[in-house]
């Protein structure tokens, strides 16, 4: 198969030129001469028997064949860069880079960091916040913790850790004069929403046998963290994953009188297929233990 492929240098020259639509800028990025890039592109077109670029005015544009090749080369070079980056970090005994949402990081992971370090001193973690659920994982990210519904991408290794539990939470003072036994009391309370989980309230209402058409759209927030802060100051009732409000419930800052339901989403650890570092397996064991303990303490 290698005999049928153009040289890697020619493909790199093409990929960079296709990205920049400029031979000059491609040459600068690759630290070679303009002539070297031009020769690589000419040889590539001759080997493939197609024209990859055409000139329009003073610039370059991709032909249909060039656009088809660019889609493949950009993906291939991105995957190569990620694989090499992972190998470098592994060889250097670098920390495992774990990505998760900012709300999960702030409200679940950081409060447990001291416990993680005591129980697993061999684990070196670098935590980063990301609201994007992209796959493949972004550059420099080894694993990601996500709330997501199956099916998973076929080339992803997803470790199913726990169910998502979702329910209404509020400041205790909001319950004054209302029944903590009857969820219909929610009809009289301002409901807080997030743009990212627009179906959270309808899902919970339906599971509790309440009229979905009576859901009030009182206040919406871009991020779940903002909604929870609004709930903590008494602006209304938030609908949130139980894992993110555990500390607030334990401290009495929030209450969840009507319980939580299990949604179709799962808490999962996403990592590239074939990743089998022992330290990542230790991280998986710890996460399963912690999340399982949360579920067994149960908010339902």
From TrEMBL:
This is HTH-type transcriptional regulator TrpI. The keyword Magnesium does not apply. Keywords: DNA-binding, Transcription, Transcription regulation. Belongs to the LysR transcriptional regulatory family. Gene3D superfamilies: Periplasmic binding protein-like II, Winged helix-like DNA-binding domain superfamily/Winged helix DNA-binding domain. Residues 6-63 form the HTH lysR-type domain. Signal peptide: none annotated.
